[in-house]
Amino acid sequence: MIDCLFCKIAQGEIPATLYYENKDIVVFDDINPQAPIHKLIIPREHIATLNDLQDHHQPLVGQMLQVASSIAKQLDIADVGYRLVSNCNAGAGQTVFHIHFHLLGGRPLHWPPG
Ligand code: 5GP
Ligand code: ZN
């Protein structure tokens, strides 16, 4: 049994403000938002880092991107612009080792990120 925060959120063992879920994916608000809109898009399957993706994960990752795009439209940030980021490993700032995309929007987003 993996002791993983995002597995527990996906299983409803730890509360989160859920925005969307289906059989493969869960979307919820980040507890420490970095923008007016800051959602986390996670697979239900435990995958520790992007480095652990395998060929059979392609449809899952595609679905995560599609869900992000749909949510951006629903939240009315699609046209003005939004950012989808995934930090891989500690040097990039990954703190929860269950893959996720951050969907950020609702304010101007500068580039490059820190
Ligand atoms: P990472 O740093 O791995 O790219 O992103 C992990 C994100 O998870 C961070 O933005 C952090 O604020 C968020 N986070 C950490 N613990 C919790 C929690 O218990 N609930 C929620 N909703 N988000 C969390
Ligand atoms: Zn997990």
State the low-pLDDT regions, or none.
Answer: none
Order of helices and strands: HEEEHEE
Fraction in helix: 10-25%
Cofactors, ions and other ligands in the entry: guanosine-5'-monophosphate, zinc ion
**CATH architecture classification:** 2-Layer Sandwich
SS summary, helix count: 2
Bulk shape: globular
How much strand content do the residues show? 15-25%
Radius of gyration: 14 Å
Q: Report the major sheet.
A: 5 strands, antiparallel
Short description:
The chain has 114 residues and is of the alpha+beta class. 20% of the residues lie in helices and 21% in strands. It has a 5-stranded antiparallel beta sheet, covered by helices on one side.
SSE layout:
Blueprint lengths: L4 H6 L7 E4 L3 E5 L7 E7 L14 H17 L8 E3 L15 E5 L9
The structure holds guanosine-5'-monophosphate and zinc ion.
The site of zinc ion has 6 residues, from α1.
Task: Name the features.
2 helices, globular, binds zinc ion, 5-stranded antiparallel sheet, HIT family, subunit A, binds guanosine-5'-monophosphate, 114 residues, alpha+beta
Your description of this structure?
With 114 residues, the protein is an alpha+beta fold. It has a single domain (5-105), classed as 2-Layer Sandwich (HIT family, subunit A). It contains two helices and five strands, in the order H-E-E-E-H-E-E. The protein has helices spanning 5-10, 58-74; strands spanning 18-21, 25-29, 37-43, 83-85, 101-105. It is globular, with a radius of gyration of 14 Å. Bound molecules: guanosine-5'-monophosphate and zinc ion (ZN). The site of guanosine-5'-monophosphate (5GP) has 13 residues, from strand 2.
